[in-house]
Amino acid sequence: MSAFSVMARQERRAALAEPALWIALAVFALLSAYAMLSGVQWSQTRAAEAQLASAQSAERNAGFRKDLAIYESGQGSTLVKPSWYAAWIKAPTTPDARIAM
After folding, report:
1. pLDDT per residue over 3-19, tens digit each?
2. Most exposed among 23, 40, 41, 78, judged by the fewest C-beta atoms under 10 Å?
3. What are the distances in angstroms from CA 51 to CA 42, 45, 92?
């Protein structure tokens, strides 16, 4: 084999490999961008869910404090107890009833 044919073969391989490298680089860049955008969307969704859960918890706590304040002040009717009191009073108190639950 002559040196010329070896060099020609190496140039052909290089010419074939270069487009494949660019295509691989482009695919990698697209996949990286997609992964980054998906991660941002995922984190924003989780943050919104956490904020909603926090707001719901604060709302429940405010209602509980209001019921408790009315009950402790004696301003509420003695016939109408707060919602948490009714749930608490209806809870089974005997060991047999708790086991049956």
Report:
1. 667 777 777 776 666 77
2. 78
3. 14, 10, 35
